[in-house]
Amino acid sequence: MNAEKQTQVKSPTMQLIDVCQKQNELIFATRKRLFNLEHKQKTETILFSGLIAIQFIMVVALVVSHG
Predict the structure, then answer these.
(1) Number of alpha carbons in the 13 Å side-chain half-sphere of residue 42
(2) Which residues have C-beta within 8 Å of that of residue 10, sequence separation ≥ 6?
(3) Measured on CA atoms in the order 5, 11, 16, 18, is the torsion positive or negative?
(4) Which secondary structure element, helix H or strand E, spans residue 1, and what is its range?
(5) Which residue segment(s) compose the domain that 55 sits in?
(6) What is the pLDDT at residue 5?
(7) Does residue 21 lie in a domain region?
(8) pLDDT in tens, 1-42
(9) Do 18 and 26 form a contact (C-beta atoms < 8 A)?
């Protein structure tokens, strides 16, 4: 019974530490998601740029070959 009371009543310092820990977890989770999104965007940008370059080369080759 006493152990339950002690866990329910926390000092303001412990409550603040708990809040800070939760905020840190959210911050690091957000940073991880942002890092993954930035990596994905960079990869997709390179792929898309490459596809555009290939299409441009094909159009130029078609124009040159047909005069």
Answers:
(1) 6
(2) 18
(3) negative
(4) none
(5) 8-66
(6) 58
(7) yes
(8) 455 555 578 899 999 999 999 999 999 999 999 999 999 999
(9) no
Q: How many CB atoms lie within 10 A of CB 55?
A: 10
Whether residue 1 lies inside any domain: the answer is no
Domain count, the chain: 1
Does residue 33 lie within any of the structural domains?
Answer: yes
DSSP secondary structure code for residue 64 in this structure: H
Is 18 within 8 Å of 10 (Cβ atoms)? yes
The answer to whether residue 2 sits within a structural domain is: no
Place of tokens 């926390």: 10
**pLDDT, tens digit, 9 for 90 and up, residues 38-57:** 999 999 999 999 999 999 99
Q: How many residues can be counted in the chain?
A: 67
Joined together, the tokens standing for residue 53 give 């370059």
